[in-house]
Structures are given as C-alpha cells and as structure tokens.
C-alpha cells in the first residue's frame, strides 16, 4: 500500500520583515535572543529580507547591527536615514529645517513653559547633544552637553528631542502637535522620548525607500513595533504586529498583538508563519 506524499510546508508569505529595535527586537537588556535570531534566519532562508527600522540615528544603531552580524539595509532616525550596514555607508539622509524647528520650539514653550532639549546631529558620526535638565537614558554611547542655544543649531540635525518636567510624554506630544504640527512632525518614540522631525517624515517613508532598493513592496511586508512612531510603518505594511508591551495607540491599529519583546514576540509570529 503506497504512503501518502508528505505535505509541503506553506511558503513564507512575506518578502520583507521590518522590525523596530527598542522594545521590539531588543529585549529589556538590549540583547537579541537566540530564538529570535534563529527565526529571522529561517525567514531569510525562506526568501524574505530582514530590515531594521528604528528611531535611533545611525551612530546609536551601528554597534547593535554590528553585534548582530547584520549586513543589509537599515532605516534609522525615524525614517530620515537609509544605512547600508555591511558597507557602513549612509545612502540617504533627510535633515530638519533648523529655522522651522526653532519656531516650533518657541510655539511649544509658549504653551508649556521651558523644555529640556537635546538633538541628534546628522551624519555617520553625528553626535547627540544634550541641554540642561534633559534626562538621558543610560546606555553605552556618549552625549555632548551644551549650554548655549547657538550650539543647538550649529550643525545639521536629524531631530530634536524635548522633555517637560511635569507633562507626560503623551501630553507633551499632544500639545506640541496642536501648536506646532504644521511646522514639524512630532512623535512619541519611547519613554521620555518626544521628537521633532522634518514635516512628513516617518518610518514609513524611510521603509518605502529601502524596500524599493530591495525590490520589495508594501503588500509583501510584515512589520513589528511597540510605539506610536511605528503607526505609519503599520499603515504602510501589509501586516502590523504589536508587541504585548506596546503602547495602546499602536495596539489599536495593529493587525495582531504578539507576546512581549522579553518573550520572543517576533519569533512567536515568524515560527507560526514558517510552519
């Protein structure tokens, strides 16, 4: 009696796997689990490309990509930069109009009172400069303090960061959008991280540029994220997956919610899709 032929596993349905870094690909200790590495490698072996899409500018992303052995394209700086990790080369970069950003800051401070300010300078070696009172998250990368306002605007910038002593991140972002949203883009990218960006810039714009270089389309992209700055990326991709630890605004627009970044949420979904 002949045996039935084995059922072939279903083909992986996506050509592009886009992952945010903090709170998504990275665990709380800023590492990537072996399980997640293996799931991404399996997706790549099945014909998909993995692309990192992060709010971090290139200088704050490069060491993580190098540690992962990541050699493809990455979208950094909330979509401002397309970076070739294997060649350590910046392919595209969009900078903030400093005059508009200064006007936006004035409008926001007229509404909220004084803000603590930091900024990310453009380029492969762009420094993060930090003004008085700005609370910097602990990490391995240095920042440069500044006290004179002129120093803030002395070189091209990708973004400006703002903090308020009393308002929550969501409240600050909401006020900033109401009074300056016609001048700059405003996103809440993580705890204590409200950013002013070039108007119209988002992770989706950077991802679409990188996808075109990779020959991939929105219709064949799955995206993973955890914060409101990932909403445009979810809107662009065919399928958006929020982590269990994600902000409620992102969960509200996600196609599904997986387990947390601490519990291999990316791997859980990819393993299911890979069969």
Structure, described:
By secondary structure, the chain is α/β, with parallel strands linked by helices. 32% of the residues lie in helices and 23% in strands. It has 10 helices and 14 strands. It has helices spanning 21-25, 34-45, 62-68, 98-112, 149-152, 169-180, 203-214, 231-236, 248-253, 265-274; strands spanning 16-19, 49-53, 73-76, 81-84, 89-93, 116-121, 128-130, 144-145, 157-163, 185-190, 193-197, 221-225, 239-242, 256-257. The strands form 2 sheets. Strands 5-4-3-2-1-12-13-14 form an 8-stranded mixed sheet. It has a 6-stranded mixed sheet with strand order 8-7-6-9-11-10, covered by helices on one side. A hairpin with a 6-residue loop joins strand 6 and strand 7. The chain is globular. The two termini are 29 Å apart. The model is unreliable at 4-9 (pLDDT under 50).
Write the layout of secondary structure elements.
Elements lengths: L15 E4 L1 H5 L8 H12 L3 E5 L8 H7 L4 E4 L4 E4 L4 E5 L4 H15 L3 E6 L6 E3 L13 E2 L3 H4 L4 E7 L5 H12 L4 E6 L2 E5 L5 H12 L6 E5 L5 H6 L2 E4 L5 H6 L2 E2 L7 H10 L1
Parallel strand pairs: 1-2, 1-12, 2-3, 7-8, 12-13, 13-14
Antiparallel strand pairs: 3-4, 4-5, 6-7, 6-9, 9-11, 10-11
Summarize the structure.
This protein is of the alpha/beta class and 275 residues long. The chain is built from ten helices and 14 strands.
Strand order of the largest sheet: 5-4-3-2-1-12-13-14
Runs with pLDDT <50, length 5+? 4-9
Percentage of residues in DSSP E strands: 15-25%
Query: How helical, in percent, are the residues?
Result: 25-40%
Provide a count of the helices: 10
Q: Based on DSSP secondary structure assignment, what is the total number of beta strands?
A: 14
Radius of gyration, rounded? Answer: 19 Å
Q: What is the overall shape?
A: globular
Order of H and E elements: EHHEHEEEHEEEHEHEEHEHEHEH
SSE-based structural type: alpha/beta
The overall pLDDT average reads: 93
Main pleated sheet: 8 strands, mixed
Our measurement of the CA-to-CA distance between the termini, rounded to an integer number of angstroms, reads: 29 Å
